[in-house]
Amino acid sequence: MALTKVSYSMITGAPAATIDYGSFGTPADRTTALTAALAASDVVFVNSGIYDPITISASGKTLIMDADVEFRLPDNTVGSGAVTGPAVFHISGDNVTVYNDFTVNGNRANNSSFSFPTAVRIASCYVTGDNAKFNGEVYVKDAYWVGFTAEGGSTSGTEISGLYVQRLKIEQADYQSVMLWSVTDWRVDQIVATGGTPPYTFNWYDP
């Protein structure tokens, strides 16, 4: 008798699993599968592997990270003449929750923020939605610009609210490690920021 492997989607009440929603051979494939899983379900198990950058724009989503999940900026995505660039993991929807540890890799050795003006606040891990919650460690390494940013608008009433992060670990960010800009009702339990060689005279921001 032939045996059929049971996928997460076949288990009643189980979250949708990324691996059930497409090819899993490359980082681009994994991100395409994750996008499809998020479109199909509000609760998604993110299987181990390296993913390309993603923006979570829908609200009310929950991601459960497997061990060794990494979102990585591909080589040569941002050239030395660019004046802005993409996030690697971006939450723009409201009420998005992430469980367990995961890594965001800015791959700064192969991307450049040389021409960025200081007004650019986009980060490798970037939050612009209300009530984003990270129940675990967000490990941001080799950010090609800011490591982690949460931001709303610059005027009263346009702030984002409700940010929670259990632990931020930032290593070797090219600019500021962490920036919270126009955020209300926020809580970060722990920030550990090490290394980095910002090419600016005001790199005292990090301490």
Could you characterize what this model shows?
It is built from 1 helix and 18 strands. The chain has 207 residues and is mainly beta. The mean pLDDT is 90. The chain has one helix at residues 27-40, and strands spanning 16-17, 43-46, 49-51, 54-56, 62-65, 69-72, 89-91, 97-99, 102-105, 123-127, 133-141, 146-151, 160-161, 164-171, 178-181, 183-184, 187-188, 191-194. The radius of gyration is 17 Å and the shape is globular. β1, α1 and β2 (43-46) form a beta-alpha-beta unit. Strands 1, 2, 3, 5, 6, 8, 9, 11, 14, 17 and 18 form an 11-stranded parallel β-sheet that branches. A 5-stranded parallel β-sheet has the order 4-7-10-12-15.
List its salient traits.
single chain; 207 residues; mainly beta; five-stranded parallel beta sheet; eleven-stranded parallel beta sheet; 7% helix
Give a quick account of the main beta sheet: strands, pairing sense, barrel closure: 11 strands, parallel
Instruction: Summarize the amount of helix as a percent range.
Output: under 10%
Low-confidence stretches: none
Question: What proportion strand?
Answer: 25-35%
Beta-strand segment tally:
18
The average pLDDT value, as a whole number, equals 90
Approximate shape? globular
Ends apart, CA distance between termini = 64 Å
Helical run tally: 1
Order of helices and strands: EHEEEEEEEEEEEEEEEEE
Radius of gyration: 17 Å
Structural class: mainly beta
